[in-house]
Amino acid sequence: MSALHDILRRFTPAELARWDGLPAGLPLGDLDGPRGEGRLGTEHVPASWTSVPSDVFAGGLRVWHDGTVVLALEGRDPTGLPPAPDLGDPEAELDTYLGRLRLEGGERVYAARGLALRVNPENGVLLGAIGFAPTSAGDYGARVRPEVGPQRLLPKPAALESES
């Protein structure tokens, strides 16, 4: 089992309180799964992602990489509506989204431990987690944070609109 596979196995909501970041320069290795392209941070750093199966993130687990090195792990929609772990005061709080709803301060950034938690501020439910190599909050926001925005609703097909 590769180091990445071991880390993926341990990246779960139940283990986030013990998370101490991705090792810098973690090799991507032979990861298989659906792939896509995206951008990271406000600097819009081009990156690729590979989706891997997850029993604990119903919305999926993405491994963000540059083709050879892992840049971040992004787990979406943990199963069972777990509460976010209490990790103390975050180094930064960023806005995030729950569907189309903007959640002010819903992303808690613990950059020194290589972790950002997306949380519903009203009830403390964990919405997602991003794991990365420890860095500063500014660097996380500029170069590591997966782009987040409101989910677009699918438009009505033209045939259905004419029937209404």
Features:
164 residues, alpha+beta, 3 helices, 8-stranded antiparallel beta sheet, single chain, 8 strands
SSE blueprint and pairings:
Layout: H1 3-10, E1 35-40, E2 45-52, E3 61-65, E4 70-76, E5 92-98, E6 101-110, E7 115-119, E8 126-131, H2 137-144, H3 158-163
Antiparallel strand pairs: 1-2, 2-3, 3-4, 4-8, 5-6, 6-7, 7-8
Molecular structure report:
The structure is a single chain. By secondary structure, this protein is of the alpha+beta class. It has one domain (3-152). 13% of the residues lie in helices and 33% in strands. The protein has three helices and eight strands; from the N terminus they run H-E-E-E-E-E-E-E-E-H-H. It has helices at residues 3-10, 137-144, 158-163, and strands at residues 35-40, 45-52, 61-65, 70-76, 92-98, 101-110, 115-119, 126-131. It starts with a helix and ends with a helix.
